[in-house]
């Protein structure tokens, strides 16, 4: 999804979107913003506090991520010695986990990084569609639980954030 | 190239069935699960389970990109779609092909063709398979009488633009056909703004029969006999049998031949089912459609043939040819399957998810259970309510009914209501025992009486 969006690319995107069965797509780049949705109620459900840069459904809503139990196969955040005020940030769906916006670029966050609500933490890719995972509260990154480029499962713990 | 690691893009009993078939072939298995299905029998039995996403099927089992991504990233070289969900969506095999994953099913173009009713009918006609006798457009009342005489009564006059029963008239003779033409045409104009009509033979008491097929993708197709699935409620099958005991051997041979010819005409690959309407009075069958997947009721064909269809599916997807020849497929005895749903038949079949507290299935000769349930298992509310299939095999239909009845009596399930009691009553009904049933029998004859007793 690099480069600017020309009308042709936009048309192609619209076609891809309607064919894909994806319900929601949100693109925001510099002074350009595009929001597509098949949901008539989308105007209201659109994330206001932290619109993802590029979102393919399922969007990382707290409802989807919060109640998920740690998957059996993954490193369980429950076994970590968590400081007070720690929250576990989980993958909303299965995909490939990327710590940087593109190969060679700096990682979004490192251990110790201060993040604000809405800051990007990582990308989750499903078939070339990249979903930004964003902080839902202010805090400091305490742990990063997954290697760059690894497949993560829905509900898998990715970060531990200590709230401010 | 033989599949080494198989991805299973489904849930419930069929996911477990596929895992076991793959394991019997020494193939590794990865099962896709939603968040609600982490702790299921298939997930435990497989070498690995990967969580796709939330419980909602649209965000897990129905997302083809998510599924193929998961298959690729978990190192799978084959994918089995099971039934339902994405099993007949051509996008799944297309995405698999793009990523070098062998799809356990037909070519995507064949899936598209078979999914289009008109193209599928044209294909059947070209292969010499009988279709419901009918007409082209009928232009006048005199035309309607002439066509009705040719087709044979009763006939159905149908609006070409129609749907939902409007503009549809049944005629039992020439006079009714003429009168019906005017009525149906007027109704069609009122409802659709288009009075164009066509006619089709009406089969008041039809049976649903279907032929189990397996193709190698190169034009060779085997059949594993037919199934009779006439016990239906709202077009959902409840009980399936093999063979169709109401069919003569001559007609049965023609049915098999038609189904094989149809599949061979498109070089059909992998498992499929050709469905037919069987007019018992006339002893004729008419093509309905082809289902391009393994079906829920495949076990009855396995029971009478002694052949594992799911294993064969996986072998063929891995590039192998058919492992048997038609003359080696020997069908014997009679098999009956009942679908056990977690539903409350006394409350209009209300789906009743919840936790199973006791699960003690029957055991014994000729009894098979395909189920992912056990004591303590959870039936989540997000998916269909089928909790298992109880299948019996015996020498004759009467023996099979007796065996099924005893098996149901021995089956203990607590925690959720199931349709086991309904099945016990159906198979004890004199019409079922005498095999005098048709596709609307359950709703028209059986359920009204059953409802009274239950209330």
Give the helix tally of chain A: 3
Q: What is the average per-residue confidence, as pLDDT of chain A, rounded to a whole number?
A: 71
Radius of gyration of chain B: 23 Å
**Low-confidence spans of chain B: pLDDT under 50, at least 5 residues?**
none
**Mean pLDDT across all residues of chain B, rounded?**
95
Shape of chain B: globular
Largest sheet of chain B: 8 strands, antiparallel
- First CA to last CA of chain B: what distance? 58 Å
Total beta-strand segments of chain A:
11
Strand order, largest beta sheet of chain B: 14-13-10-11-12-15-22-20
Percent range of helical residues of chain A: 10-25%
Sketch the topology of chain A as an H/E string, one letter per element: HEEHEHEEEEEEEE
Specify the number of helices of chain B. Answer: 15
The largest β sheet of chain A comes out as: 4 strands, antiparallel
Note the quaternary state here: heterodimer
Strand content of chain B: 25-35%
Give the amount of beta strand of chain A, in percent: 25-35%
Structure class of chain A: alpha+beta
Q: Which secondary-structure class do the elements of chain B indicate? A: alpha+beta
How is the largest sheet of chain A built, in terms of strand order?
4-11-9-6
Low-confidence stretches of chain A: 1-6, 40-78
What does this structure look like?
Chain A is α+β, with helices and mostly antiparallel strands. Chain A is 13% helix and 33% strand. Chain A contains three helices and eleven strands; from the N terminus they run H-E-E-H-E-H-E-E-E-E-E-E-E-E. The longest helix of chain A is centred in the first third of the chain and has 14 residues, at 7-20. In chain A, 35% of the residues are buried. The model of chain A is unreliable at 1-6 and 40-78 (pLDDT under 50). By secondary structure, chain B is α+β, with helices and mostly antiparallel strands. Chain B is globular, with a radius of gyration of 23 Å.
